[in-house]
Amino acid sequence: MTTLVSAGNLAKMRATQESNLPETAYIQGLTVTNGADGWIEAWTTKATVNARLGEPKGEQEKAIASTVTVGKVNVITLPFGTSVLDTDQIQILGKNYRVHWTNVGKSHATALRVIVTEA
Amino acid sequence: MAARATMTGLITLVRGLINDPAGASQAFTDEDIQEQLDEVREYVRLDTLTPYAEPDDSQLKFQSPYKYWESGLVLTDPAGTVLTPSTSDLKSGYFTFLTSQEAVDATGFTYDVYAASAVLLTLWAGRIEQDLTKFSADGSSYEFEGLGNSKLKLASQYKAKSPRFGAIQTARMVRDDHTG
Q1: Pairwise CA distance, residues A14 & B131, whole Å
Q2: Which one of A56, A106, B77, B82 is most buried, by most CB atoms within 10 A?
Q3: Do B138 and A77 touch (CB under 8 A)?
Q4: Distance between CA A56 and CA A68 in Å, rounded?
Q5: Which residues contact B125 (CB under 8 A, 6 or more apart)?
Q6: Residue B25 touches chain A, beta carbons under 8 Å
């Protein structure tokens, strides 16, 4: 299979994207424990990565964002390869954001884009 | 092949001129830089240094018209005896001695560091031009078009400083149509 984008250039694009992530993001998953008082839910940090908080860009992100009817929609950019599940939340600057969609699996992705709303 | 130990100072100097500090992300190896320097070196044999006389007429300080010496140069007196200077400034060609010297000759290689730097910057710019210059992906757009141009601009400035590439030289003009 041939491709216009070389592996070297793809790596450079990913590195460039990573160099423009000014915030610290905590990727958190919901853990449930069975305690004396019953089931207890808690958000536990799974990973700490750099991030950038922004708005939807491009037709696909705007279309998906328009389907989210609850809360203000933001897009969080994370380093390519970051693992985020649809059931996770992302904490940035003390605010929690719930995950609605990610571009995981996209060909030639240079960063992980996550559509979120404030929790 | 490793770079010669006597080239360490010059290689560090060139790295500073082209802004390519040694390390994991360096653009050129020490051998790359030495190779370019060797292409623009000149062998100087028994260059008589200019003495700066002290108030008591002793001669402790000497200046060479050549700059940027490799550290393996040899200083000798008129009898051919090898002299060990008290201090050596290889970049400016300035040497001092603890005892007075009648005369001092220098033999070794001198380098046109600006010519080597200009070539290295041009090579570097060429690599950038073949590389990614701009892209838009995943919500961001970036452009790097200035990187190659800035290196070529710096290369041009260094060429102007280089004797080999066109620094102003002096020439004596002699008229043969005028007598008396």
Answers
A1: 14
A2: A56
A3: yes
A4: 12
A5: B147, B148, B149, B151, B152, B155
A6: no
